[in-house]
TrEMBL record:
It is an enzyme of class 2 (transferase). Pathway: Amino-acid biosynthesis; L-arginine biosynthesis; N(2)-acetyl-L-ornithine from L-glutamate: step 4/4. It comes from Campylobacter helveticus. It comes from the Bacteria. Its EC number is 2.6.1.11. This is Acetylornithine aminotransferase. GO terms for cellular component: cytoplasm. Binds 1 pyridoxal phosphate per subunit. The modification N6-(pyridoxal phosphate)lysine is found at K239. GO terms for molecular function: identical protein binding; N2-acetyl-L-ornithine:2-oxoglutarate 5-aminotransferase activity; pyridoxal phosphate binding. It catalyses: N(2)-acetyl-L-ornithine + 2-oxoglutarate = N-acetyl-L-glutamate 5-semialdehyde + L-glutamate. May also have succinyldiaminopimelate aminotransferase activity, thus carrying out the corresponding step in lysine biosynthesis. Pyridoxal 5'-phosphate binds at G93, A94, F125, D210, E211, I212, Q213, T269.
């Protein structure tokens, strides 16, 4: 038996094609969840599949004691997209966060700071491992697993003043999702992000951008911090980076790389293996070839318009918030988001929830205008029944 730690949806999915998924009864579902922001290229993408098959016939795994062609190419791709300089590949989002935390601790340690601490944000989500959980605000996720890493302070998002109040000589890093996801969709404002950048520069504190969900094109740029015209010191990525092959990464500026982790400080058996990196390289190739970023930028106003129109028709729908193909819609607590998701599934539309009672929309980045229209029609029909 599987350990029952997920509230499952009761569907068994067997295959996918484009933005559609099919279950074991061959029912077709329009997917606006992308397996929680992973399947940016949708399902059964011919070019992506071909790249994986080719790599399988060459080499799946070596170890990090050797170079492999794919990891070098993936590093080039990620440094070019992120404008950062050094990359470490992991197998998941949480692992990327763990690595970023070690970078920050080591950077502070090299400056003579012991017991350094982190600043994170209310409604944050950074993963389920003990380190990442320490930065995750949701008390329900944290409580049974205490003690977590000491001294993490949670501050209001988009509120620079309260961050300034809590920064002190022990602070090694400020960690934020460029667009908060799981805790309720909430983009960092440009002023806020630029203010954090300034604060971190003044104090020589690391700014860690968690782009595990909002990155890799979901915002219409490779990384959502580009919208704020800043560069973080550390970037974490995963989810769409491998389009379904489990891979993550953290990337560092040259300055931070030179003053943090050295040989022997960190490692991973699988991280950066040829198969995972072949997936990463195929993702970057396809993004370029199919102009994925400009497609998202071009279609975002339509997605926003459709969601705003639907939301406007129901008094129990609150504000829509988001950036690019990462959108949230708040529901009044009298309408339970779980019930809406269920009705959507019955009408062959897959959505997600987030926050306290919000709908979350994470369509594949290959989604077309007609799919957005269909989603809007199904959602309208479903909401009418509440
Ligand atoms: C999903 C997610 C994580 C954790 O990633 P896993 O691969 O599940 O470990 C961390 N941060 C953010 C913002 C996420 O959305």
């Amino acid at each position: 038996m599987l350990l029952e730690v997920y509230n499952k949806f009761g569907l068994t999915l067997t295959r996918g094609n484009g933005v559609y998924l099919y279950d074991d009864k061959n029912r077709e579902f329009l997917d606006f969840s992308s397996g929680i922001g992973v399947c940016a290229l949708g399902y059964n993408h011919a070019h992506f599949n071909e790249a994986l098959k080719k790599q399988i016939d060459k080499i799946l795994h070596t170890s990090n004691l050797y170079f492999n062609e794919q990891v070098l190419k993936a590093t080039k791709n990620l440094t070019k997209a992120s404008k950062l300089s050094r990359v470490f590949f992991t197998n998941s989002g949480a692992e990327s966060i763990e690595g970023a935390m070690k970078v920050a601790r080591k950077y502070a340690f090299n400056k003579g700071i012991k017991n350094s601490s982190f600043i994170a944000f209310k409604n944050s989500f950074h993963g389920r491992t003990l380190g990442a959980l320490s930065l995750t605000a949701n008390e329900k996720y944290r409580k049974p697993f205490k003690p977590l890493i000491n001294g993490v302070k949670f501050v209001s998002f988009n509120d620079l003043e309260s961050v300034e109040k809590l920064v002190n000589e022990k602070t090694c890093a400020i960690v934020l999702e460029s667009v908060q996801g799981e805790g309720g969709i909430n983009p960092a404002s440009k002023e806020f992000y630029q203010g954090l950048r300034r604060l971190c520069d003044e104090r020589d504190i690391l700014l860690i951008a968690d782009e595990i969900q909002c990155g890799m094109g979901r915002s219409g740029k490779y990384f959502a911090y580009e919208h704020s015209e800043i560069l973080p010191d550390v970037l974490t990525s995963a989810k769409a980076l491998g389009n379904g092959v489990s891979v993550g990464a953290f990337a560092l500026s040259e300055k931070v790389a030179k003053n943090s982790l050295v040989a022997g400080d960190h490692g991973s058996t699988y991280g950066g293996n040829p198969f995972a990196c072949a997936a990463v390289n195929a993702v970057f190739e396809i993004y370029a070839k199919e102009k994925i970023l400009s497609r998202v930028l071009k279609l975002t106003p339509h997605l926003e318009k459709v969601l705003d129109e639907v939301a406007g028709e129901f008094d129990f729908c609150g504000e829509r918030k988001g950036l690019g193909f990462m959108q949230g819609l708040r529901l009044n607590p009298k309408v339970k988001v779980g019930d809406v998701l269920k009705k959507c599934r019955e009408n062959r539309l897959l959505l997600l929830s987030c926050g306290k009672n919000d709908l979350r929309f994470l369509p594949p980045l290959i989604t077309e205008k007609t799919h957005i229209d269909t989603m809007g029609e199904i959602l309208r029909k479903v909401l009418k029944s509440f």
